[in-house]
User: Fold this.
Amino acid sequence: MTTETTTPQPAPTYESAVERLEQIIARLDSNQAGLRETLELCAEGRGLIEFAAAELEAVGRGLEELRLDELIQRLEAEAPAA
Assistant:
């Protein structure tokens, strides 16, 4: 019985996803990928695009929250004291 130890993959980042997408696009543009590889690259690319889009959406939500917090602080500072 053998036991394999696998090194855990680092958590993907937006930047690493974009870098991999660029590699996939370059490979597809080279016209050297066979049919099966093309299918696999397209599937991987789709997953990376979905991941990157979710990351961008999360950052956008964070920015909206920051703007709301700033607005609340400004309104509270401008509110007349009772």
Q: What stands out?
A: The chain has one domain: 14-78. Residues 14-78 form one domain. Residues 21 and 46 are 9 Å apart (CA to CA). Helices lie at 14-29, 35-78.
